[in-house]
Amino acid sequence: MLHFLYLLCLILGLFFIKMTHPLAMGLMLLIQTFLVSVITGLSTQSFWFSYILFLVMLGGMLVLFIYVSSLASNELFKFSLTMMFVVIASMLFLFILYNLELYVINYQPLSTSNEEMLSNTDLEMCQDNKMGQPVNKFYNGPSGFVTLLLVSFLLLTLIAIVKIINIFMGPLRKGKKKQ
């Protein structure tokens, strides 16, 4: 399942490059955020981090939606049939590849020992529930570097946007004060 989601994120990321309409780019970014949140939730014991990640990104997307809709309110959305064909064909290819890998290459029917092992794992997770353990995985080991890289990238992006934006120009500028 995770391999399928990874491939889907990769394909959607490649299609993001071809997007020209700002609202379509926002929708694609929202879908990417949802997929990354699902992958993060499936990789850990708790979905709290992925839930908070999705809510923060959704809040930022709402602000961007207001800004972009005021900028490009009259721009028409061009629907490309070739792009839609490529999207559907790649999704179908991914689905077939995922099912081929799942049922043909790695076919192992569940035996009673595997079923017992799965049920014992769920039981141990409930008994060994430590509050800081799911969050601890994000800051230790190899994912700690990725988290630090993400935080520094967001800080650099924030500084660049603040330097680029002029408050007194643009669609969300302040109105004139009445005297």
Automatic annotation (TrEMBL):
Its main subcellular localisation, reduced to a broad class, is: mitochondrion
Record localization: Mitochondrion membrane
| Annotated Gene Ontology cellular component terms | mitochondrial membrane
Task: Cite the InterPro entries for this sequence.
Answer: ComplexI_Subunit6
Instruction: Give the UniProt keywords, A-Z.
Output: Electron transport, Membrane, Mitochondrion, NAD, Respiratory chain, Translocase, Transmembrane, Transmembrane helix, Transport
* Recorded catalytic activity of this chain's protein: a ubiquinone + NADH + 5 H(+)(in) = a ubiquinol + NAD(+) + 4 H(+)(out)
Please tell me which top-level EC class this enzyme sits in. Answer: translocase
Task: Locate the transmembrane regions by residue number.
Answer: 46-67, 79-100, 145-169
How does this protein lie in the membrane?
Multi-pass membrane protein
- Please tell me whether the keyword Transmembrane is annotated for this protein: yes
Q: What is its EC number?
A: 7.1.1.2
Q: Does the keyword Protein transport apply?
A: no
GO MF terms on file? NADH dehydrogenase (ubiquinone) activity
Instruction: Report the domain of life of the source organism.
Output: Eukaryota
Annotated family = Belongs to the complex I subunit 6 family.
Entry's PANTHER family?
NADH UBIQUINONE OXIDOREDUCTASE SUBUNIT ND6, NADH-UBIQUINONE OXIDOREDUCTASE CHAIN 6
Q: What is this protein called?
A: NADH-ubiquinone oxidoreductase chain 6
Q: Which organism is it from?
A: Macroxyela ferruginea
User: From which lineage does this chain's organism come?
Assistant: Eukaryota, Metazoa, Ecdysozoa, Arthropoda, Hexapoda
